[in-house]
Amino acid sequence: MLSLDAPVSSVALRKSGDYVVTLGTRFAALKWKDQSVTTFVHVDKDKPNNRFNDGKVDPAGRFFAGTMAEEIRPAVLERHQGALYTLFPDHSVVKHFDQVDISNGLDWSLDHKTFFYIDSLSYSVDAFDYDLQTGKISNRRSIYKLEKEESIPDGMCIDTEGKLWVACYDGGRVIRLDPETGKRIQTVKLPVDNTTSCCFGGKDYSEMYVTSACQGMDDESFSRQPQAGGIFKITGLGVKGIPPHSFAG
Ligand SMILES: O=C(O)[C@H](O)[C@@H](O)[C@H](O)[C@H](O)CO
Ligand SMILES: [Zn+2]
Predict the structure, then answer these.
(1) 140-182 pLDDT, tens per residue?
(2) Could you report the per-residue pLDDT of 67-111, keeping only the tens digit for each?
(3) pLDDT at res. 66
(4) Torsion angle in degrees (nearest 10) through CA of 194, 50, 249, 112
């Protein structure tokens, strides 16, 4: 076990072995064997109430992650405090944009020409044109607006058919979206309301893992949803995920 002085909001593999993490408002290298954490870069230095949230490595080995203000309670926070960043393999950092509420799920299309992104409180899944050569994003547009019962979009991943899976916080489900048509094509409900993220794993990435939260729940709702805070495995979906990319720095 390794105890750290700030919340770890995302973890990615590193080509050289070990991991890169977002920790508080820092991008850092984590060496499990040495039990060490080394900061690459500190972001949002003028915003002491901020922290990183979700992050993922792009197909060229760059680490994307976004920030948010610390929540007063789930989904309640000072708005527009977050930003989306990239940590490049040379350990430089670029801010893509700010004014983010809750920087959340992200992934890339299978042809690497589109970047998908969720700012949770926009209740939207957005797409950008993606330049894999430079890591630049442009031409933001919404590809799906969540329906009322789907509540808040949170974590996201892509499958081998190029369809997006989005965990719905307070919606108790993951939904599968077709980014081409902007339509929802599948809903899988879970026995907890606060589903937070999803990814594929297991044999050939044929199983889906879904995380959930129990933060902010009172005794009554916890007794109704005793599995809140657990991680679920969904089998038999009939669709697979893709292996994660490793940070190239
Ligand atoms: O996991 C996250 O993305 C955030 O850290 C959480 O705070 C919740 O998911 C959020 O409240 C729902 O939008
Ligand atoms: Zn999230």
Answers:
(1) 999 999 999 999 999 999 999 999 999 999 999 999 999 999 9
(2) 999 999 999 999 999 999 999 999 999 999 999 999 999 999 999
(3) 99
(4) 50
**Which atom of ligand 1 approaches the CA of 102 most closely?**
13
Give residue 74 CA to ligand 1 midpoint distance, Å.
Answer: 7
Which residue's alpha carbon is nearest to atom 5 within ligand 1? 53
Our answer to whether residue 54 is catalytic in this structure is no
Q: Which of 52, 40, 45 is nearest to 14 (CA)?
A: 40
Does the CB atom of residue 104 touch ligand 1 within 6 A? yes
CATH code 2.40.10 region(s) in the chain: 146-242
Q: What's the fold here for domain 146-242?
A: Thrombin, subunit H (2.40.10)
CATH 2.120.10.30 at 1-109, yes or no: yes
Average pLDDT over the chain reads 97
Mutate to test the pocket of ligand 1, among 51, 72, 169, 195 (most ligand atoms within 8 A of CB): 169
Where are the domain boundaries for CATH 2.120.10.30 in the chain? 1-109
107 lines ligand 1 (CB under 6 A): no
**51 annotated as belonging to a binding site for a ligand:** yes
Residue keyed to tokens 């230095």 = 45
User: Does 154 belong to an annotated binding site?
Assistant: yes
**Confidence bin at 44 (pLDDT 50/70/90):** very high
What single-letter amino acid sits at 226? P
